[in-house]
Amino acid sequence: MNGTITTKSLASLTSADISASLDSYSGELSEWINELIEGDDGLEASLEQEGSSKRPVDLTELDNRVALLATKLEVTCQETSSQLERTIEDISRNVPRLNFDLQFMREGALALQRELSSIVHHTATGGNLSSVGIVDASTMKALEQLRYLDAVKKGMEAARAVLQEAENWSTLESEVTTLLKEGSYSKAASRLSEAAKSMSVFHHTPEYESRRNLMTNLQNQTEAAVSSALVAAINVRDVGACKEFHDIFGKIEREGEFRNYYFGARRLGVQELWSSALLLDVQGENTGGSGTGVSLKFCELLARFFADLSALVNEERSIIPSIFSSAHNPITVLSLFIQSTLETLTPSLSQRISGMVAYNGSSALLELIKAFKMTEEFAIKVEKLMEKFALTRIGALELSSPPREEPSKGHSRHKSKRLSMSRRIPSQSKSAGFPGAGGELFDHTWQQALFEPFIDFQCEYVSLERRLLDSALSTLHSSHKHYHLGEDSELKARMLREKAVDVFGMAEEALGRCVAFTHGYGAVGCVQAVDHLFSQFFSAARTDLLKAPQRDTSRMPYSPDTAASTQFDEELLSQAELVSFQLALNLLNTSRAFKEHIQALDSKFRAEFTIVAQNLRSLSFSTDGHSHLPTSIARGVIELLMQSTLNSMELNTILENLDPLPPVTPFFGTSQTSGYGSTPPTPAGATNTFGYRSEGAVAPQKIEPLLRGSFQTLTEFARATQAFIQQLILSPLFQHLSSYASLPVWSTSDQQSAKSKVYEFSIPTFSLSPTPTMQRVRDGLMALARTLLDYAGDDEALGFSLETLPFIEREAGVREYLDWVKQNSSSNNPDRGLSTSPRAKRMSMSSPSFRRLSVSGTTATTAATATNAPPPNPTPPSSSNNNNANNRAPPTLSSDTIYSAWLTSIILSLVSHLTSNILPLIQTLSTPGAAQLACDLEDLSNVVASVLNAEWEDLERWKECCKMSPEDGRKRWLMVQGVSAFAQGATHSQPSSLDSGSVFKLVARIRGWSA
After folding, report:
1. How far apart are CA 545 and CA 543, in angstroms?
2. Of 274, 246, 266, which is closest to residue 317 (Cα–Cα)?
């Protein structure tokens, strides 16, 4: 037991003893109670021995002791309570008296202040204190004498200081010179430091300039005397001597010069490695003789240089704090060392990168990325070394900080033990950014010098990428030129798919290069370059494959027997045209597969740039200056990219569409920013990137494809292929119509048509029949449906991209499909127009090379779609990643509807060609010629109406104008020209829509009505 309970039994303990024992006891409360119960006599004396075991006494004794202790504790509590009440009563009684005493002291202090102020005022104004009764005359005289003596003392001290400084300056030069000759550099520096402190005494005197020049000369002499010894100490790694020299340079105010000496000597090795190398792939350095070192490529030299510099920085990490001990932040010194090393390279890093780019030409981007990744890896490695440096310094600072006060003893000791754990738990700011290791300790200026040579090329990323892709595409085309494909359409289509494998690989590689070289800031340029790649690819495919064959002009002349022959199909298309037709169908099937894989590529672009958007949005900077960057990205790169032209509004629009913020409402007092990575992301209810306060969850938005140009180029290729197919089918009819405008029947007059009759008796005139040309065109149109079905068979390639067919909007069977296409156009949904029927999948994916076109993550989806899609269906359901709930599934089109749409488009294309390109070429149209033309057009109109159940407006206008008599035509022409119908005797004539059209004006010209 402790205290008084060690000498007293429980019965003899008083309340004071119990209270003192409790205050002094340091163990558990239960142990203290047990000791009180046992007492000095203890319980062991009352134990009885029975054999080898002990039996405790009866519990009565223990119960008595517990009851006694409880009674004493109760009495102690009552006495303590009574004493506490008496103390509170005394305090309550004495508090009013304390207030009175404080008030009395305050009044006395104010009175004294007033008296002192009065004395100071009279003294300052020269008044006589004795006249106002403050002091008597003798006291006043003594005060005046003391003031005089004080003034004399101050003046003498100032004179002594000036004389002493003058004496010191008179001997300064000789003393310093002597000390330098003796090698006492530290004493000479101390002497100069003392003299420099007294320069302010001569600041406004004529001697100031001369003394300042003397000080500068002596400092220069000291620096010159110490420099050789300093360089020698640096070379032998004498840290102690270098530290002494640093102190000397600090005393003579030449710390900057000391850093120059130290940095210059330490970086000499890496500078020689850089300068002496002869680079093989840098323009201007690969001519030989300019370098004395080994021949290397630029990236090889860069790897060696960064390895040596990294080792040097790691060595300096332990040396600089010892030498620059007086520096506020040794990390800043290390940063200046790296920066000076990079800025003093000869030739500079920027010059060699420019020479490397000029040497490599179109493939310069690949070498740039290699060099950039090496540079970034070096920066990250050095940044980690600096973090270790900062953590070491933080630990040293914490060890040198004064200890905290211990809490007062007493009953609060248990509470202090429980709360002491919080001292060992770092705060949120410490764990997030190392306090003092952010803006205070870390210095990233050296990264600016490291990455600035790359920023100009990063801003030119789009041009570098396009040059690389153009070169790769040109090489790809050249590698396939030696293949002799002949007339095999399937082989040509397969060769196109083989090229597409490489083209899609180029696009994916471009995405990887964009992220690696620009960290996503070049997203706009990457999309433009890939769109340009597909534009060039499909343009070359159109040029190489969509070539119309030469038609055989030695065709069988027209006869009714030939028109009725079953060999009309063979007469319609030649063998070469049939080969081209099958090639075009294969190209349409291939286009369907291209669209599927462009969609998959677009999804991959979206996924990659979504990650980029999230990373850039997370670039927030805490109050201690620490940035939340991924470990694979150097801070200096992001800072330069954020300030470059790559951080454009177009980039922010793309990234905002990929990773949109919640809907927001204006927040008063916030400012907008337009750059990613400039402000931290914000949860709901906080201020977001653009300075607004978010209110809720993100509303679903339509997914817009990134590769809109690629989809548009593919659509143009599909449109050109469809036009090529129509041109092949209609080429025989176009050949017939080529001479239709120059038929002599159009200019035949009435006299030429009337035969000479000997007996001049009247012969009845029968109805006209169509011209042979129009009969062949009519027969061709009648056989067009069977021809299209025979040539295309049940191939579903015709169902791809129906919306790009000319005049497709006139087909009633596809109205619903066209409405769906308009609502889900390619600008909002890249999935439209894709066929997912099983046969289409077999056609497009049968080639082994084309199986490699699948982008990762899309193969399973494509296979599932192909298995579950109902045949035939030229358009698939909406993409599974489309968040627009309003998008409905595309309508299912049957084979009959697809063929009907093609038939409508082909026939209307022919009729449009006739009315727009053929009929306007007729020079003169006589009345008999007009009647013959009206007959031809009537016959053609009947065929169009019977096949399509539709009419062509311009065809009907031509027919109506040809049926019009010359008198009616002239009257109508005058009405169109503004002459009143009353003046022409046609009071009931009314103008129609025909009058204002170009068809009527054209017919009026060729029939002579306008004359």
Report:
1. 6
2. 266
Residue 997: per-residue pLDDT: 64
Burial letters for 783-798: b for 16+ Cβ neighbours within 10 Å, e otherwise? ebbebbeebbeebbbb
Nearest alpha-carbon partner for 657 in 525, 524, 460, 507: 524
Residue 191 contacts residue 172 (beta carbons within 8 Å): yes
d(CA 892, CA 817): 8
The C-alpha atoms of residue 385 and residue 132 are separated, in whole angstroms, by: 77
Q: Could you read off the pLDDT of 652-692 as tens digits, one per residue?
A: 888 888 887 655 444 333 344 444 554 444 444 443 433 33
Cα separation, 626 vs 613, whole angstroms: 20
Number of other residues whose CB lies within 10 A of the CB of residue 185: 22
422 against 830, higher pLDDT: 830
242-278 pLDDT tens trace: 988 888 888 888 888 999 999 999 999 999 999 988 8
Query: Do the beta carbons of residue 545 and residue 591 sit within 8 Å?
Result: no
Asked whether residue 502 carries a pLDDT value surpassing 70, the answer given is yes
Note the pLDDT of residue 766: 53
pLDDT of residue 455: 94
The structure tokens listed for 991 are 């103008």
Residue 831 φ/ψ, nearest 5 degrees:
-95, -5
- Whole-number Å distance between alpha carbons of 1008 and 728: 37
Beta strands in 359-428 (DSSP E): none
Q: Give bridge partners of residue 279 from the DSSP assignment.
A: 296
Query: Cα angle vertex 630, ends 624, 635, to 5°?
Result: 60
The rounded distance, in Å, linking the Cα atoms of 585 and 722 is 9
SS3 296: strand
pLDDT of 712: 92
CA distances, 291 to each of 278, 284, 298 (Å): 5, 11, 14
Distance CA 326, CA 319 (A): 13
User: Which residue has 């030649």 as its token pair?
Assistant: 574
- Compute the 3-state secondary structure of the chain and give helix, strand, coil in percent, each to the nearest 5: 65, 0, 30
Most confident of 57-61, 130-134, 290-294, 743-747: 743-747
Instruction: Please tell me the distance from the alpha carbon of residue 173 to that of residue 220, in angstroms, as a whole number.
Output: 12
How high is the pLDDT of residue 167? 66
Query: Does an H or E element contain 278, and which?
Result: strand 278-279
Per-residue tokens: 160: 């002594």
C-alpha 435 chain-centroid distance: 29
Q: Which residue has the tokens 């005289």?
A: 141
The whole-number pLDDT of residue 181 equals 87
What is the number of other CB atoms lying within 10 angstroms of the CB of residue 532?
A: 19
Q: Who contacts 30 (Cβ-Cβ below 8 Å, separation ≥6)?
A: none
d(CA 851, CA 664): 45
Running DSSP on this structure, what letter comes out for residue 418? H
Other beta carbons less than 10 A from residue 106's beta carbon: 10
| Of 10-14, 273-277, 734-738, the least confident | 10-14
Half-sphere exposure of 979 (CA within 13 A, CB side): 12
Q: How far apart are CA 332 and CA 480, in angstroms?
A: 58
Q: How far is CA 566 from CA 255, 571, 794, in A?
A: 104, 10, 21
Distance CA 273, CA 293 (A): 8
Report the alpha-carbon distance of residue 563 to residue 557 in Å, rounded: 10
Phi, psi of 428 (to 5 degrees): -65, -40
pLDDT in tens, 546-586: 876 665 555 444 444 444 444 344 445 677 778 888 888 88
Q: For residues 614 and 788, what is the distance between their CA atoms, to the nearest angstrom?
A: 53
pTM over 0.70: no
Furthest-apart CA atoms within the chain: distance in Å: 175
Residues contacting residue 929 through CB under 8 Å, at least 6 positions apart:
745, 746, 747, 748
Quote the Cα angle for 461-462-465, to 5°: 80
